[in-house]
Amino acid sequence: MRNILVAVSGLTPQVVSETLYCLTVQKKIQIDEIVVITTTEGKKNIDKYYLKNRKTNKLEGAYSLEEEIEKLCKLYKVNRPIFNVKKNVIVASEENVKMHDVRTDKDNILFPNVVTNVLKTLTADERNMLFCSLSGGRKTMSAYMGFALSLYAREGDKLFHVLASENFENSGKFYPRVKTNKDLILSEVPFIRLRPVLKDKHGYKNKTYSEIIEQSQKELERLNEDGVVIDMKKRTISYNGKSVKINPVHLALYLFFVFLKEKNTHSFNIKDFVKISDRENKHINQIYNLYLKIYGKTPEEYESMFSSKDKELKWFNIGIDGNMFRSYRSKINDQIELLFSEDKWLIDNFILQSSRNYGSTEYSIYAPLDRFIIN
Fold it and tell me: What predicted TM-score, i.e. pTM, was given to this entire model?
């Protein structure tokens, strides 16, 4: 796992080292890499920052953010994160026109695209854990960091704001020279994670920030419409007047994941994910009972159809291993995709999703329970 500090920076690069200090020295969180998003003027100050002494009215410096980070790490004996101005400082640009500063309406369109693309790329790697800072840059720059993180943040990604005392802020220092919890206070900012609902599934890769917001708004509105109807007797799943026929075993598996949400909330919950990867999986009885309801038989009636030897080899006795489940999942998802062929932006909410977690794969359905009507 790699902990990455992502910050927006305007004309005062101190906010980056201040956040690093709070995370590493105060919170004892190791940061492995720093990524800074800024403008052309911001980058100049990251390279060389001149501080105006209020007493002498003279410029002091030049200070380099890269050097100040190295000094901070040596002073407090923390691991130095990867930070190179050429590689880790991203200047907001579009069509190779670099931004001088974020001032105009056009700038406000370009900068969020850069922030969005950076967060999209970093969150695509499961090894990265993001610690994002709202403290730097103009207010609009910080706002776009928060908005973009709402779109792409995963369960463990966090958002922070650093509060500096008036004396420390006026000093112009890059970090406290004496360990203190008074000069700088790190505040975690709660935010709504939309990734499980919206996800990157509509060609977002090639869309601008504004286009993503527009499409996401449409999808959130669509989520309030009539839900998916599951008819156990007919063995069908229906949506918006369209139905697909589902194999009884496949339907039982699908219903199993739907009913998981009854134990949690009516929204997406990380606890909805379960592992199905071996013959002795603990969920087989629940799946089998759902299968019998669909089949319309008692266990005795159904099992009387098989000889003792045949019954021992049936899935409800030996379980469902990983290969079998992956095959079932693929067929279930193929049917769901047919159901939403005209509303493709909804597909990922209703198919069986997978998530890699500590060397194993777990599965879930993103749509909340109240999106299903079961007959």
Answer: 0.57
* Residues 17 and 144 occupy one common structural domain: yes
Share of the chain above pLDDT 90, in %: 25
DSSP-assigned letter for residue 359: T
Q: Do residues 24 and 51 make contact, with C-beta atoms less than 8 angstroms apart? A: no
Asked whether residue 204 is domain-assigned, the answer is no
3-state helix, strand, coil in the chain (%, to 5): 45, 20, 35
| Helix ranges restricted to H, 153-295 | 166-171, 195-198, 209-222, 248-260, 284-295
Residue among 114, 167, 120 nearest 8 (CA): 114
- Give the pLDDT band (50/70/90) at residue 269: very low
For residue 241, pLDDT beyond 80: yes
Q: Are residues 179 and 239 in the same domain?
A: no
Burial 119-154 (b: 16+ CB within 10 A, else e): bbebbeeeebbbbbbbbbbbeebbbbbbbbbbbbbe
Burial class of residue 223 (count of CB atoms within 10 Å of its CB; 0-12, 13-18, 19+):
middle
Give the H/E segment covering residue 333.
Answer: helix 322-339
State which residues form the domain around 90.
2-198
pLDDT digits (tens, 9 = 90+) for 129-167: 999 998 877 777 888 888 888 888 888 899 999 988 888
Do 63 and 187 lie in one domain? The reply is: yes
CA 301/CA 297 separation, integer angstroms: 6
**Same domain as 191, residue 101:** yes
- Per DSSP, the three-state class of 368 is coil
The helix or strand, by DSSP H or E, that contains position 373, with its residue range, turns out to be strand 372-374
Question: Which one of 182, 198, 214 terminates a domain?
Answer: 198
Cα separations in angstroms, 318 against 163, 221, 300, 303, 311: 58, 44, 18, 14, 9
Number of Cβ within a 10 Å radius of residue 84:
10
pLDDT in tens, 49-85: 887 776 677 777 788 899 999 999 999 999 999 999 8
